Amino acid sequence: MNSASPESITMDVMPSHSGRTALGFWIPLAGLVAIFGYLLIYHYHHERQDNAAHMGDFGTFYQAAQFAMEGRDIYTAGKPAQKYVYPPLVAFLYTPLTRLSMLHAAEVALLINALVLIGSVLLAARAMGQRLDPAGAGAFLLVALLVSLLNENELRLQLTMLETDGLMLLMFTLALWWLDRRPALAGMALAFAFNIKYLPIVVLPYLLLRRRWKTAAGMVLGSIFFALLPAILLGWREDLRCLRVSFGGLLKWVGVAPASPGAIQIHGIGDMLSLSITSALGRLLEPYGFSGAAIMAVAGGVGLVALVVVAWIYRAHGVSLWRSPGRTARAKPPNAGLVALEWAGLMTVALAFSPDTNARHLLLNVIVNTAGVVLLLMPQPPASRLRLVAALLIIFLSAIMPIHAWRGDFFRYGIPCFGLLAGYLMILWTGLDREIQRHHVTTEGAEQTVIPK
């Protein structure tokens, strides 16, 4: 029997679903067109009607790009409560739009964001499907439709705010897609994302643990490249100053004086804008005199407990969390499926334990939900299917905060991220069940075996 790997699975899986063409292709396609068409038309209309009032953070990016072109300080761009706080790469990327009026530039940005979101959802469905369910990978449009419905709130927020979260989602998804095919390119995608927001840093320890040396090297070297790229426009000294300003502000979260006197003004750990577990702990502990470093340490303790639970789940399935498969076994079942589950786990960690996770950042839930939906569409025992439905509902309801009277407490106690963590652990359990079962039934040879505990 020939083992299936991400490299060997192509679009020719579609014919196996020819008996369900309407369900597997045309109906999901129509649904995706309807969802994204509505979102695009709705936001285009409101940009035209409300002008700058419906452009979210775009005005700040646009002005920062203008300042970059004019040789002015990009960190003075934006309104007092909405200052530019990103690395210089973001302002550099927006400079082509400054040739247009702000309204027309926002319309272009809206279209680009919509295409980025569509591409991310489709690619996530494809990548997860090939790793978790190679035989059913042709139904990726149905997966994408269901995930779009589960994440409609986050997709809408992204197009409302015209933020960078869609680009982050695309880079994380591309990294998963390229991880076995083009490991260096996977690292470059993560490096690009790191120069937009710091979140990809959580992936680097994972890459080292899994001995993904090419991807780790691509991420480190790529981060340097993308950090220095804006120097083409800004000049070396100004680019390095901007890097000190943008990353120096992050030190405030652990109580360290910023590296630059002009460091960006970030939200406090306990700020109500953040939904993360770390910020919930900040809101609970700051009144008792806990410093930022102490709060981060407590959050790290909660994260360690979650890691112990994950290790126990692996051990219960006869799999070691800490040992890595050989290079030739990585892309083969069940290891390919384990990578998909672990990638969803990295997104969960990035959101749940960041000191600054607001509602629009939950767009990264797309990757977690995609893993859950792919598993849900696979043949499952009733108990496993019920667990998956419960997990997806917990993540969905935690993110949208359905009971208006409780929304204040939802934010205060970090329920969206606690719900995400709980839902992910349920998906992980079910996914390991399925991968181990599929492994025992379909694989041949020691090279494909799960590393035993």
Radius of gyration: 22 Å
Counted beta strands: 2
Order of helices and strands: HHEEHHHHHHHHHHHHHHHHH
Instruction: Count helical runs.
Output: 19
Shape: globular
How can the largest sheet be summarized?
A: 2 strands, antiparallel
Helix content: 55-70%
Structural class: mainly alpha
Mean pLDDT across residues: 85
Distance between the termini: 26 Å
Unreliable parts: 1-19, 441-453
Strand percentage: under 5%
Strand order of the largest sheet: 1-2
Q: Which key phrases capture this entry?
A:
single chain, 453 residues, mainly alpha, two-stranded antiparallel ribbon, 2 strands, globular, disordered N terminus, disordered C terminus
Concise summary:
By secondary structure, this protein is mainly α. It has a domain of 187 residues.
Kindly describe this structure.
With 453 residues, the protein is mostly helical. It has a domain at 267-453. It is 63% helix and 1% strand. It has helices at residues 21-50, 58-70, 88-94, 102-132, 140-150, 152-161, 165-178, 183-194, 203-209, 213-228, 231-234, 236-248, 277-285, 292-316, 335-352, 365-377, 382-400, 407-412, 415-442, and strands at residues 78-79, 82-83. Strand 1 and strand 2 form a beta hairpin. Helix 15 runs antiparallel to helix 16 (365-377). The radius of gyration is 22 Å and the shape is globular. The two termini are 26 Å apart. 48% of the residues are buried.
